[in-house]
TrEMBL record:
Positions of transmembrane segments: 6-26, 47-66, 86-110
Organism: Panicum hallii var. hallii
Record key words, sorted: Cell membrane, Membrane, Transmembrane, Transmembrane helix
Oligomer status and interactors: Homodimer and heterodimers.
Chain ranges of the Casparian strip membrane protein domain: 5-97
Lineage: Eukaryota, Viridiplantae, Streptophyta, Embryophyta, Tracheophyta
GO cellular component: plasma membrane
Entry membrane topology: Multi-pass membrane protein
Family recorded in the similarity comment: Belongs to the Casparian strip membrane proteins (CASP) family.
Name listed for the protein in its UniProt record: CASP-like protein
């Protein structure tokens, strides 16, 4: 199994999903003619996607990091392994952003749910 392809594939999926989710949120913030309230299922889907994408991103970053460590141990540290290390750190920062987004989605979801008296 090629860890590099897995990491790149996961990063592409996370990027596409995050961009589409951001576009949907920006469209939601624009004033609309008909102010129909959003259903709770959209908030649940956002929370689910944020969590799944964050876990996938960490999985891909850890696979790339372990493979990079083996590569550096066998062939020495070179420019490629340094680039992979930077990519792993950027994936970690992306994970932190997705985690923050999951917290925001959870707050939005719980704000929509009415608490019984």
């Amino acid at each position: 199994m090629c860890y590099g392809r897995y990491a790149v594939g996961v990063n592409v999926v996370v990027c596409v999903c995050s961009i589409s989710q951001a576009i949907a949120e920006v469209r939601r913030l624009r004033p609309q003619r008909s102010s129909t309230p959003r259903s709770t299922s959209i908030y649940c889907m956002n929370l689910f996607l944020d969590q799944v994408l964050a876990y996938l991103l960490m999985s891909a970053a850890s696979a790339a990091a372990s493979h990079n460590h083996l590569w550096a141990a066998r062939f020495g540290e070179d420019q490629f392994s340094r680039k992979v290390s930077v990519a792993v750190w950027l994936s970690f920062l992306g994970f932190l952003a997705l985690s923050a987004n999951a917290l925001i989605s959870m707050a939005n979801l719980f704000r929509r749910i009415d608490m019984p008296n």
